[in-house]
Every structure is written in structure tokens, then in C-alpha cells.
Amino acid sequence: MKPTDGLDGVTLAPFAILAGAGVSYAKKDHDWHLGLADRLVAADPRLFTPTRRVIVDLADPASEAAATEWWLTLTGAGGEGMVVKPWAGLAVNDGKGRLVQPGVKCRGREYLRIIYGPEYTRPEQLERLRQRNLGRKRSLALREHGLGLAALDRLAEGAPAWRVHELVFAILAAESEPVDPRL
């Protein structure tokens, strides 16, 4: 942790640029977003900090092994974990035309102890955790993501604020649905 005084000392680690004047960037691939984030870091390194990343070729076992080792080192040093994202960007559809989840948190063992308790790695605890039905949480996350993309599109199209706010309030309403917050 570094000291802060008001906003002095606060840094941002951008990983996506959602929109600009009159345009949504949801269809841009992750390389484009990270390239722009790197330009922000270069322009103002006091305000912006680099977003650490590993690009993984899932068809290459060595690439997967390198990413796994990176994650183990990161979490072993006390890092919370990482987020795995599709390279194609925020508005990716699967083979059936359904929206793909924009990211999956992969938290480390020690961070999960905070959430699930100190003995969560005991076999009976792990079995109980594996039995949870995550379908509802995934469905909610995808609905919220879709609403967010639609709000970005409306904003970029210059829609009246109330039309953008309709979707924002829909996201907030979805957030009020009861789900296990530890998922």
C-alpha cells in the first residue's frame, strides 16, 4: 500500500475503455483496449499504473502452463487473483449467438480463505462448495452485462439521458436479486 492524501497518490489500472465521444468500444478486441490503457500509462504514470496481463494461447500447453505459473506466483505473493477474459472483447457471442461472460475471477487460495473460512480446503468443504448451483449467478451476470452494453450503445448514439438511465436502473434492480455474495 502506498500513502494517499485525498486523490494525491491514488492510481488507476485501466483494462478497458468503454466509450468515447459518440462511440461505444465494446466491439473492440482486448488488444485494442490494453493498447489504449498502455497509452494512458505512458501519458500520465502518476495517475495510471500498468495493468498486468498474460496472453494465453489455449491451443498451446506451454502457454497454459506459463499462465498457470504466473497466477501461482501472483497469488503466492499475496495477490487476490486474476480475471480471465475473452480476447475478442466485451461483446463476444458464442456459437449459438449468446453473449459470453466478459470475465471470470480466478482467485487465489489465501484470498478464498477470507471468503470461505480458514478450513475451506478440507475435502468435505470443497465437496460442499462444488455442489453449489452457479447457473443463477451466471445468468444474472450475463443479463447485467447485456444491459450495460445496451446502455453504452444508447450513450454513444446520443440517446436522451433518461433512455440510458433506464438501463442503468435495470442493472441496479438486477443487483438487488438475492444471490450468495461469495460466488
Automatic annotation (TrEMBL):
Q: Looking at the keywords, is Nucleotidyltransferase present?
A: yes
Which Pfam family name is an example for this entry? Answer: PNKP_ligase
What transmembrane ranges does the database entry give?
A: none
Question: Which keywords does this Swiss-Prot/TrEMBL entry list?
Answer: Kinase, Nucleotidyltransferase, Transferase
Stretches assigned to the Polynucleotide kinase-phosphatase ligase domain: 2-178
Q: Name one GO molecular function term.
A: nucleotidyltransferase activity
* Protein known as: PNKP (Polynucleotide 5'-kinase/3'-phosphatase) family adenylyltransferase-like protein
- Organism annotation: Actinoplanes italicus
